[in-house]
Predict the structure.
Amino acid sequence: MFIEGEMGLQGVDLEALKPEEHILLQTEQDREAALRWRIANDIRKKKTGVRNKILEFLRANVRHAVTGEELRYVANDKTEWARRVRELRTEQGLPVATRNTGRPDLAIGVYVLEQDRQSPGHDRNIPDPVRRAVLVRDGYACRKCGWTHDQWNPSDPRHLELHHREHHAAGGANTEENLITVCTVCHDEIHRNSR
Ligand SMILES: [Zn+2]
Ligand SMILES: [Zn+2]
């Protein structure tokens, strides 16, 4: 279930590594893979719904890419796993990013829970195609401060969310025109000020 070279190797020039460095990297990778395997197995055995299992596994790997194969495994190979992942994003407002829904830098078939946080209530239930269109239109940048994922760093772990200009709860539609891309910091500020 773990594809070689999938984790932690981005930006590492394997050709340039000395043999002993190579072995060290391999050991770290094996340790991480073994840990993920153990977590996946523990969650898989739990007597809880598919959606909860997937959420638990994503939470155990916040900001780390997990593969669809891992999620399917955690979901006991139930075919509904993909629908449950989508619900976490479109109904629960959790930032489960994929290549198609906001993070074109990700590989196909990879999922990342960017932060363990739900978007504000009225900014949920946005269909994936609309989400993608808004992000593309806004150049994957915050419309208030210009933040992009390229500026991500561990001491300021933001991600991009969508905000309804006219609040969804007040009848604002899930249309491109009514949605803007904002970073989580600016988004919190908008909601603080509109209270
Ligand atoms: Zn911002
Ligand atoms: Zn909002």
About this structure: Residues 120, 123, 163-164, 187, 190-191 surround zinc ion (ligand 2) (CB under 6 Å).
